[in-house]
Write a structure and sequence with these properties.
Largest sheet: 8 strands, mixed
Oligomer: single chain
Structural class: alpha+beta
Radius of gyration: 18 Å
CATH topology of one domain: 2,3-Dihydroxybiphenyl 1,2-Dioxygenase, domain 1
Length: 304
């Protein structure tokens, strides 16, 4: 997952849409009670590890067939079924996994994406999470081709994974259409959350004091902005802290139109007031939210 450009994104109105997309039913490290044969994060020999970079994502859904059809047509992703765990690829680059779990009874939980952060030491990451008041959702586990990974919730309940790749991490390049390009954390205490992830990912935390800012903090390292953190508006009572990932598309307007045709929903329509109308938030037919971004170098001019 190539969340590696200095591209801060925040959508204020996204808050009211993400509220029910907050609970995780399981993790890819425990599909059907067994570890799936996860592929390495990169096939390039000599790839460096890039702690602090988001490098993988998983979708937990209650309708895998519907999810595959939606993302395959919207982004052109191809799929490999590893026996209950499906790998999605863009131009032969493995991007993410998908797995099916039934929804919990009497719960508002919906299908959702959660993303994995590269770390130098998974056991240390677990200790940082626990010390900060977070939870272990899937205990660290070693896998032959992938390396070691685990899934946690931070102290506010935002879900994320960590991974120490045995093959190194995907290099820092501008993502192609269909690749992951950005990720945004919504938090009730953006400063505290930024400090937690600074400890976890080795970031430089950059506060944004600009008027009408698009984010509150930028998490950066090795010359790249890896993610942004935004304070949840006080009036958004129902929203719980959450990570929202974005995919690069050739045309946001075309992708929004296609989302509707494919049975998804447009949660945030593109508007000229936000990145010149080149960003939107949609959900797939099962309810998982995902961001869309039409990349342009001009988007960086005059923004923080």
């Amino acid at each position: 997952m190539k969340f590696n450009r200095s591209l801060p994104i925040t959508l204020h109105r996204v808050c009211r849409w993400l509220a029910p997309v907050l609970l995780l039913w399981g993790a890819a490290v425990a599909v059907n009670g067994a570890s799936p044969p996860l592929p390495p994060l990169t096939s390039l020999p000599g790839s460096p590890r890039l702690p602090g970079k988001f490098v993988w994502a998983d979708l937990v859904t209650d309708d895998l067939a519907a999810a595959r059809n939606f993302y395959g047509q919207l982004f052109g992703w191809k799929f490999r079924d590893l026996g209950g765990y499906v790998i999605a690829e863009n131009e032969e680059r493995a991007l993410c996994g998908m797995f099916q779990k039934p929804r919990p009874a009497n719960s508002e939980a919906k299908p959702r994406w959660f993303c994995y952060l590269s770390v130098a030491n998974v056991s240390r990451a677990q200790k940082v999470v626990i010390k900060a008041g977070g939870k272990v959702l899937a205990a660290p586990q070693k896998m032959p081709d992938r390396g070691e990974q685990g899934v946690f919730a931070d102290a506010e309940g935002a879900i994320f994974g960590v991974v120490k790749s045995s093959a190194g991490d995907p290099e820092d390049l501008l993502p192609e259409p269909g690749d992951w390009i950005w990720i945004q954390l919504f938090s009730r205490d953006a400063q505290k959350a930024s400090e937690f992830y600074r400890t976890l990912g080795g970031y430089e935390v950059i506060e944004n004091n600009a008027t009408n800012r698009l984010n509150d903090f930028i998490l950066a390292n090795k010359g790249f902005a890896r993610a942004t953190v935004k304070m949840i508006p006080s009036e958004a009572k129902k929203l719980k802290p959450n990570w929202l990932p974005f995919v690069r598309v050739n045309s946001v307007s075309a992708s929004v139109a296609q989302t509707k045709l494919l049975g998804g929903k447009v949660l945030i329509e593109p508007t000229p007031k936000v990145f010149d109308g080149k960003v939107a938030v949609v959900s797939d037919p099962t309810g998982a939210a995902i961001g869309l971004l039409e990349w342009s170098p001009e988007l960086l001019k005059g923004t923080r």
